[in-house]
Design goal:
7-stranded antiparallel beta sheet; about 725 residues; 8-stranded antiparallel beta sheet; about 45% helix; single chain; alpha+beta; disordered N terminus
């Protein structure tokens, strides 16, 4: 996600409560039992709200995507698009075989393929309210920087006491924009292997054309497996490791679901931005979205051009291009959605009502807090536009990480910045290794030069001074090109993986003597970066303090209207519920809830992204449904839609029926309503891949028995 979008997140931790809306903390489910039962749930609500009970004890995170155990031997189901980089791209290079084209199916445990460095599975173990401990001493701070430091120190101490071994990762997450804090403890599985991925003709069917669209016919599923040491310890990849014994796993439904059935999704949604101060929404819709779309489109075109004549380069940047295309289409959809659903008009009215309420019943403290927040937001708006094209060089980014790590090592571990403590060393090393399959120096230079040329358009007073000076951005562009050419032409140590890792262990004195051009550059801009960081820390502290007051105002305002509020998505485990149902978004056009195998053949053009595998096409034409036909539609269901509320990060989330059985995977939303990340739209629909299509693909198309027999399949 861009810095532009990250800049707005601190103001986005409050949402309205509507009938179908909500990414709920599991502990909140008993409080909304009436709504859940109205949707058709008949089970034990408290069982579904307990992290240690089925089915939530089977839900895991991949660190950006969601997933779930579907066998007692560590078998994991997630989306195809979640495993493209660390599993398919990595093993295509390692095995020298195009796994995107062929797919991958391990016939035995021995054939299951290792993942890229740093690929992990995270299993939530505990969630504890630590608000009092986080804020202890903060009120007595003499400055915003001191307040920031106090809170950070408290967070680090909590994390240190929580991480009792290297098998656990702990983090402190804020809820309601820092009004409350929770300490999240997760078990880390470090050895995760690729078990199954269909060919891209199934896993990516429809490609970017169908992305965010419905009707959909995409087999967006893949299978992984978690491994541990023979003594059940979480260890890095080793041939001696054995499958993780997942006592908690989801049964896989062969009967699936039908229209109107209750469904729920459990996963780790990233962020939603549903209630911003109106001036911020106005800025995003009128300026932010358009600029970000331009940034993404230029990036897509550039990377495609730089890699078009080299398959190796194209493979390395495949994931980056795909990510850019995904966000380009999403933000484009948000632009249209804002217009179609009159977002600005509605939010301006809501905002004016809130201002009237605050004017009549708000305290001076509340009014001052709002003024302070709007001032900070305006500053961030300007900075987000100015910094959009800042950076772009992976080599400079790597050098900066190495130099910052050396600087932080001069401090006691407890005083280091998050990300550079001893607990972070393994992650940093894996980052150095990961460059091997996702970086090319010539492409990197091309991207960097393009962005620098754009960054030169920013007024010199608003650019980073030392950065601009070292890259000669104030002179003719040819001078900048000359500087960059010289940096990349020099034989940098950063181009060698073993040397990159060695540099992580270098002292600050050793790096200060380095003649590597990228290390020298990182050293040259270091002080400037630290000054900006100091300023941002103070502003962040001030922002958080005033947001807490702002939230109290909102609570009173919505209480006066008989409404409630809940914490926005923040990457922690959430549950959303609703029903399988179609939708009408345009006059005369109704989208039915299920798509079929026949829809795949109907879209077939013989060329990517609508090229159907010959074997699959014959099976469809011969109506070889196996035991997975859904009689109401007369075929095997491929995808379906529901009114569930999800966002980015929910990719790979298991879809469950009322019994907690696996009935598919959430993988997308509909473009027409993607503005729901900002404001929930009742017509919002989530797109799922049906469990019956996953099983059909394994059993009928792949003729697999090993994995089918491993799962506990129920009607």
């Amino acid at each position: 996600m861009s810095k532009f979008f990250l800049s707005i997140l601190l103001l986005t931790q409050i949402n309205f409560l509507f009938a179908d809306e909500g990414m709920w903390e599991p502990s909140q489910l008993p409080n909304i039992e009436k709504d859940i039962r109205a949707a058709g749930f008949k089970g034990n609500i408290r069982k579904f709200s307990d992290l240690f009970e089925h089915p939530l004890n089977a839900i895991v995170s991949l660190g950006g995507c969601s997933a779930a155990f579907i066998s007692d031997s560590g078998l994991i189901a997630t989306n195809y698009h979640c495993i493209e980089g660390s599993y398919l791209q990595f093993n295509t290079r390692r095995l020298e075989k195009d796994l995107f084209k062929t797919g991958f199916l391990a016939k035995s445990l021995d054939e299951e393929a290792q993942s890229a460095p740093g690929a992990r599975v995270y299993i939530t173990q505990e969630s504890t309210n630590v608000t009092k401990a986080v804020l202890e001493g903060a009120a007595k701070a003499q400055s915003e920087n001191e307040r920031y430091k106090i809170i950070q120190t408290n967070r680090k101490n909590l994390i240190k006491s929580c991480e009792t071994s290297e098998e656990f990762q702990c983090e402190v997450r804020s809820f309601y924009s820092g009004e409350t804090y929770q300490l999240i403890k997760k078990l880390i599985i470090k050895d995760v292997r690729l078990v199954y991925a269909p060919p891209q003709s199934i896993g990516e069917y429809g490609g970017e054309i169908d992305n965010w669209m419905y009707p959909r016919h995409t087999g967006d599923f893949a299978l992984l497996r978690a491994y541990v040491s023979p003594s059940n310890a979480s260890e890095e990849f080793s041939k001696e490791n054995v499958p993780y014994k997942s006592k908690n796993f989801l049964k896989v439904s062969k009967g699936g679901i039908k229209e109107s059935d209750f469904v729920m999704v459990a996963g780790y949604p990233g962020r939603t931005n549903r209630l911003l101060p109106y001036p911020k929404i106005e800025f995003d819709v009128q300026f932010g979205f358009e600029n970000y779309v331009e940034f993404l489109k230029s990036g897509i075109d550039l990377m495609r051009d730089l890699t078009k004549d080299d398959e190796s380069k194209a493979l390395k940047y495949r994931g980056s291009i795909s990510g850019y295309e995904n966000y380009y289409k999403k933000i484009s959809g948000q632009i249209e959605g804002a217009k179609n659903f009159n977002l600005l008009e509605q939010e301006e009215q809501n905002w004016n009502e809130f201002l009237d309420f605050l004017d009549s019943s708000g305290s001076v403290t509340e009014k001052n807090a709002l003024d302070a927040l709007l001032k900070i937001s305006n500053e961030q708006n300007i900075e987000s536009l100015n910094n959009m094209y800042y950076g772009g060089s992976s080599l400079i980014g790597t050098a900066s990480t190495i130099y910052r790590h050396a600087y932080e090592k001069t401090k006691p571990n407890e005083d280091r910045e998050p990300g550079y403590q001893e607990r972070d060393y393994e992650r940093l090393v894996n980052g150095m290794r990961g460059m091997e399959y996702r970086f090319d120096a010539e492409v990197d230079k091309g991207i960097f030069l393009f962005r620098l040329n754009k960054y030169r358009d920013v007024d010199g007073e608003d650019r980073r001074k030392m950065y601009s000076e070292l890259l000669k951005l104030d002179g003719p562009y040819k001078e900048t090109i000359s500087v960059v050419d010289e940096m990349y032409e020099y034989s940098s140590d950063l181009l060698d993986v073993s040397k990159r890792i060695e540099l992580l262990d270098a002292s600050i004195d050793e790096l200060n003597k380095s003649s590597d051009p990228f290390i020298m550059f990182a050293r040259g801009v270091f002080d400037e970066g630290m000054e900006r960081e100091k300023k941002n820390k103070a502003r962040s502290s001030l922002q958080q303090k005033n947001i807490s007051i702002f939230i109290k105002s909102l609570r009173r305002f919505y209480k006066s209207q008989g409404k409630d509020i809940y914490p926005d998505a923040n990457g922690t485990l959430r549950v959303t519920f609703g029903n399988v149902m179609g939708v009408q978004l345009k006059d005369g056009v109704y989208y039915r809830p299920f798509t079929t195998l026949e829809g795949i053949s109907q879209k077939n053009t013989g060329t990517s992204p609508f090229e159907v595998d010959a074997k699959q096409l014959k099976l469809i034409n011969d109506k070889e449904y196996g035991s997975y036909e859904f009689s109401k539609i007369g075929s095997v269901p491929v995808n379906y839609i529901s009114n569930l509320d999800i966002t980015n990060g929910n990719s790979g989330s298991s879809t469950l029926n009322a019994k907690g059985e696996f009935v598919g995977l959430a993988f997308d939303g509909m473009l027409e309503t993607i503005i729901s990340d900002y404001k929930f739209i009742p017509q919002t629909r989530t797109i799922h891949v049906d469990s019956r299509y996953l099983l059909w693909t394994l059993e009928v198309f792949e003729e697999d028995t090993r994995l089918i027999n491993e799962m506990k399949i129920v009607r």
